[in-house]
Structure formats: structure tokens, C-alpha cells
Write a structure and sequence with these properties.
- The protein has 11 helices and 10 strands.
- The protein has helices at about 5-15, 25-40, 45-55, 55-65, 80-95, 115-125, 145-150, 155-160, 165-170, 185, 220-230, and strands at about 100-105, 135-140, 155, 170-175, 180, 190-195, 205-210, 235-240, 255, 265.
- By secondary structure, it is of the alpha/beta class.
- Strand 4 and strand 5 form a beta hairpin.
Length: about 290
């Protein structure tokens, strides 16, 4: 891969997925795109770049998905799910007692472990949620991982990563060497393809937004842009959940951290704090990469 080709791919990936690669990540691109080029019958990354420059839609999609990180597992990092059970849901149940409905968005749902973990948490609270309407929207950039999430089929290795044995036996059915989420749990989740760099206003407003372990791949301008748009999609008393390495501090005033609740944020009153504008040169569009 020539320096010119690498710079083209860096720009292409930032514009189409939000991925912000430093100048020394050529090895990463080569390791992920060389197999893709060979599978497509191309001589190398140079020919792949030519296809991209020619606007081949299939190749564009394949390149973006090949560079997407899909690291995830059930109840990942544990703390956010403790917050969901002990802090978020008690407040939401009280605040929504009149309308008896809850909307939750997993903004980087990947292969489904995060939304299914939330669905299991809600099932465990079923006594307090009888008669409630619950919507879980799980979005991701990659159609391939969404198809896996919809099927809800996981290997023995995948179900052993973070999933308590009692929940495995309660909410999954074993078929051969794989486990499938039961139909009732799968029916709780709507899976949709979405690039966070694009407009997501059509999703409506949510009581809870999980946007974990995806913003770490974006530059500062892109993070600011996404935070400011997330603030428009969350209820004034809703909750935003970020990954352990992510924060709104120093980027936006649209959210504030909740003391002693790592990774948990509340929206600020827009009349009290205007969002910080994105810095000059901010990308006009943004993306949801998996890795939750």
C-alpha cells in the first residue's frame, strides 16, 4: 500500500464510518483489507482503492464493515447493568408510572449481547413492569452483525463470556454446540442498520440511551457532534450510558455526570446550558461502529 493509498483510505473511513486512524495504523488497514481484496479477486489494496474511487457500493460497504470493531459480550463491564437495575429503572418506573412505557436505544448494538443483556434485566423486573410497553431499539453500522443479533445464536464461548449460568438456562435454548436466545426475548428488540454519522432523529426520543465503546474511535469534533444530537433524542429526565473510557466532560454541556455513578449521565436543561459547538472542520456526518 502506497502512502497516497493509505491517506485516501484514512479519509474514506473517517467520512463513512467516523473511524479516526492515526498516521501509524497502516498495518491495521492492511491486516483487515488484504483478505477482503483477495476474496474479491483483486491483486491488492491498490485495486481495492480503485474500486472505492469508482463508487462501487458493495465494496464501500465491505470495506467499512471490515474495519468495524465488533468486540462485545454479555453484561460487558457489569457496572452499567448494575446502574440500569439499581439507579436507572427505579427512577424511570416512578417517572413513567402514568404512561407506563419505556424506550431504550442501544446505539452500537453489535452482535446483540448488549441489548439482550438489557432485555434479560427487564425480564427479571417483570413484576414491576406488568402492563408496560417496552421498546428496545438496537442499531449498528454493520448489516452482517445485525443479522447475527436478530438470529440470537451464540457459540459456547460467547455465552460463557459474562452471562450468568442461571440466565443462560432461563433465557436460551441449546441446539448442538450453539445457544439461541428464546423467542420472547428476541421479540423485545428491534434491530436497525444505522450510521451514527447520519441523521437519527427519525428514531424518536428515548428514556435511556446506551452508547458505549463506540465514541472512543472518533475524533473530538465528531464526539461533540454526536453528543449534541443525542441530547435532542433523549427525554429531559432520561439517562445516557457511556463506556468506561468515554466522557462528556470537556466536550459538551448538554449532559452532566451523575456523582458516584461511573459512565452514567443526565441531560442538562437546554435553557441552562447551551451545547458547545463542534470545532472548525468537524465532520458533517457521523457513524455507529460496533464494540459495545
Amino acid at each position: 500500500m502506497t502512502p497516497t493509498e493509505y491517506e485516501y483510505l484514512r479519509k474514506f473511513l473517517k467520512e463513512n464510518s467516523g473511524l479516526d486512524l492515526s498516521a501509524d495504523k497502516q498495518y491495521l488497514i492492511e491486516s483487515r483489507l488484504l483478505p477482503l481484496a483477495r476474496k474479491a479477486g483483486l491483486a491488492g489494496i491498490g485495486e481495492l482503492v480503485q474500486k472505492l474511487q469508482g463508487g462501487a457500493r458493495t465494496v464501500i460497504t465491505d470495506v467499512v464493515e471490515a474495519m468495524t470493531t465488533n468486540e462485545t459480550f454479555f453484561f460487558r463491564d457489569k457496572v452499567p447493568f448494575d446502574h440500569f437495575r439499581d439507579t436507572i429503572m427505579p427512577e424511570i418506573i416512578k417517572a413513567r408510572a402514568a404512561r407506563r412505557s419505556i424506550r431504550i436505544w442501544c446505539a452500537a448494538g453489535s452482535t446483540g449481547q448488549e441489548p439482550y443483556s438489557l432485555a434479560m434485566c427487564l425480564k427479571e423486573m417483570s413484576a414491576a413492569l406488568t402492563g408496560w410497553r417496552i421498546e428496545i431499539i438496537a442499531t449498528d453500522l454493520s448489516q452482517e452483525v445485525l443479522e447475527k443479533a436478530k438470529a440470537g445464536i451464540y457459540s459456547q464461548f460467547e455465552v460463557q463470556r459474562g452471562l450468568p449460568i442461571q440466565m443462560l438456562m432461563k433465557y436460551f435454548k441449546q441446539t448442538g454446540e450453539t445457544w439461541q436466545v428464546n423467542p420472547e426475548l428476541r421479540a423485545m428488540i428491534q434491530h436497525r442498520q444505522l450510521n451514527l454519522l447520519h441523521d437519527f432523529a427519525q428514531l424518536g426520543t428515548f428514556d435511556v440511551i446506551f452508547c458505549r465503546n463506540v465514541l472512543i474511535y472518533f475524533d473530538q469534533d465528531t464526539k461533540i457532534n454526536i453528543f449534541n444530537r443525542l441530547a435532542r433524542q433523549i427525554e429531559p429526565d432520561g439517562f445516557l450510558v457511556l463506556g468506561a473510557a468515554e466522557t462528556v466532560v470537556g466536550l459538551t454541556d448538554t449532559f452532566r455526570p451523575i456523582p458516584e455513578r461511573r459512565g452514567l449521565y443526565k441531560p442538562n436543561d437546554p435553557r441552562a446550558a447551551a451545547p458547545k459547538p463542534a470545532l472548525a472542520g468537524a465532520a458533517p456526518r457521523l457513524a455507529a461502529m460496533a464494540g459495545r
